[in-house]
């Protein structure tokens, strides 16, 4: 298709989504839940259809020489399908936020003033690799009363098309407009440019993928973007931390999985506990092949660790999101230094303090400027499912509208409502 053709396609999809969003905003909870339960049933009933489509993507990815981890992300295994089906059922079981009224208060004039939660309208979702995101985005759109235009990665086009057809069938089953969830059916990258440059088509864009994708969308979009660029997450081990707990949590935060944005990339250790803590955590990291890039004080304590891979930390290391078995390590003089370091070098995503001092925990919670701030637990919990959101459509490090994992509530807005009995303003 030519650029003009693509622009016309996106405009048509936007108009259809606008019309569908009006129906979705007014849809009863029962109909939205029925669509989600139908979606779960249809997913479980379509292993052959999904397997055939997914096999085309896997074969093309292997032929193109994609790295094994990227190929693995594409797979729609029975386990993955069951997981997303269960996610649909969990979202159906959650309270419907739409129409919820809060803060209703009587004013001296006699009017009552409050706020009502409403859908955003139409969101555009641009994502890479994992085709299960198609179902996560669709299910959250349905329950939140929004319409969605989805654009998945070209490497998963056949899988995404098969999943989208199942979503549309589920919407029809529940008497809801199938255009409430649409998929951009071309792999032409120019379609992304038209989508993010079309405020008539979408109210907000949500990118989910690598830093390059998110930077491009943030730079070029003409509509608001809910996003995060980096996940440089910190663990700070305070002087009063329980040593055994600190070892377990720090190890989990870094090594449970290296690639997610909520994995710890930076370790700060109070000087008073560094001698006891660093050689032991260093041994755990060395056994798992984690390279440690430290300041002089940290390296002095880590050099005694057998088999440790060490390097001096550069200025860039303090800001780096490795997404790999590498971690920066710094010894700090105290809580003030730890908070200052995190607020300077962190990405405002997720940061944790390990401490037995209540006042230190409270200061860390108040003063660290991040979307998720934790006490005595792993940064790996910064996830919509773990937070009880049912699923997440992404993580936001912005301060306006949504912050942290974005679930149902993050796809809504509040409008003021005023109730009266004929009152007149004097």
- Unreliable spans are none
Query: What oligomeric state do the depicted chains represent?
Result: single chain
Count of separate DSSP helical elements: 14
Q: How many strands, which pairing sense, and closed or not: the largest β-sheet? A: 7 strands, parallel
- What is the number of beta strands? 16
Distance between the termini: 61 Å
Brief summary:
The protein is α/β, with parallel strands linked by helices.
List the helices and strands and how they pair.
Elements: H1 3-26, H2 29-44, H3 47-63, H4 68-74, H5 78-93, E1 101-106, E2 112-119, E3 122-127, H6 132-143, E4 147-151, H7 157-173, E5 181-183, H8 190-196, E6 204-208, H9 211-220, E7 233-237, H10 243-255, E8 264-270, H11 271-287, E9 291-294, H12 296-302, E10 310-312, E11 326-332, H13 335-345, E12 350-354, H14 358-367, E13 372-375, E14 394-396, E15 404-406, E16 412-419
Parallel strand pairs: 3-4, 3-6, 4-5, 7-8, 7-12, 8-11, 9-10, 9-11, 12-13
Antiparallel strand pairs: 1-2, 2-16, 14-15
Helix pairs in contact: 1-8, 2-5, 2-7, 3-4, 3-7, 5-6, 6-7, 10-11
